[in-house]
Inverse folding.
């Protein structure tokens, strides 16, 4: 086992901590909401289940993101779990919030943009916010969900795995 890392002002512990977190593989999601000027999306790998009864999920948004105000104030949003074939979609929304051009999508009854072809999709209503340091933890009550067959897109150690 490597050396334990403790908080030390002489080393860049933030970078080392991020590297340590990168050892944990996560799925990749796109979160969508209706923004002030139309549909918005953001790539996130901070998705997690919270409860089966009631059905609750969470994701976290960086407070420094330009998209933060729209997502933290959204009363309804959708979380899309990406398949291994959707790396381009992941990259698209990590760079731009509103690039829905040439995508297959529709609006939910609550006005949330829904992307087609994902492995799973969770349509959520805001349940709670929690301060999480430089992020806000957003908990959603799952109003509807669907699943499709396929292999998940996985992110670990700074890159994608399929």
């Amino acid at each position: 086992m490597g050396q334990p890392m403790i908080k030390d002002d002489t080393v860049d512990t933030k970078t080392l901590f991020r590297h340590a977190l990168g050892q944990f593989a996560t799925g990749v999601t796109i979160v969508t909401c209706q923004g002030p000027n139309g549909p918005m999306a953001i790539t996130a790998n901070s998705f997690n289940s919270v409860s089966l009864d009631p059905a609750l999920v969470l994701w976290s948004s960086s407070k420094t993101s330009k998209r933060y105000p729209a997502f933290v104030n959204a009363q309804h949003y959708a979380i899309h779990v990406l398949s291994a074939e959707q790396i381009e979609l992941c990259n698209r929304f990590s760079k731009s919030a509103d690039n829905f051009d040439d995508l297959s999508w529709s609006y939910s009854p609550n006005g949330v943009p829904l992307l087609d072809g994902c492995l799973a999709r969770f349509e959520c209503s805001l349940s709670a916010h929690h301060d999480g340091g430089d992020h806000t933890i957003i908990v959603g009550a799952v109003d509807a969900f669907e699943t499709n067959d396929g292999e998940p897109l996985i992110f670990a150690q700074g890159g994608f795995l399929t």
Observations:
- The mean pLDDT is 92.
